[in-house]
């Protein structure tokens, strides 16, 4: 095939594409759409509540506290604790999954527990804090976030599982310069994982 023939095919293709995209066909389609029943004209934009109703619901929610910019549901946990301008380093930490195991689990396998994380009851977070006293530690535990602050260190840790924040325990070991935080895991299927 020579270059002239290739350009001719290319030109015909462009003209065909131009004819497809021209306004004359759009006018024909609009005329055809006018003949269609109203229910057949429905598209994806008509799915769900009408926009006015949604705006009214949104306004009703915001009228409760008109000074609020956003609701608490819209803000992720832990975001107010993240300060990029804070020069304090992050301490070394380790997350360990804990599981209560008895002789019936180890020797006989009578319970449904296995070594997977699905059967674990708690998270143990070990945080190394050199040159720190227990009185210097400020600890705040939320359902999905752990915030630790000292004079020398800061740690904002997003937890791998939701936890029961009010049932958490913390213990500082001065000889090892280590803080251990035990967090009970909150699971939707807790009744299934227990004995």
TrEMBL record:
One of its GO terms (molecular function) is dynein intermediate chain binding. GO terms for biological process: axonemal dynein complex assembly; flagellated sperm motility. One of its GO terms (cellular component) is cytoplasm. Residues 90-185 form the PIH1D1/2/3 CS-like domain. Coiled coil: none annotated. Residues 24-51 are annotated as: Disordered. Belongs to the PIH1 family. This is PIH1D1/2/3 CS-like domain-containing protein. It comes from Oryzias javanicus (Javanese ricefish).
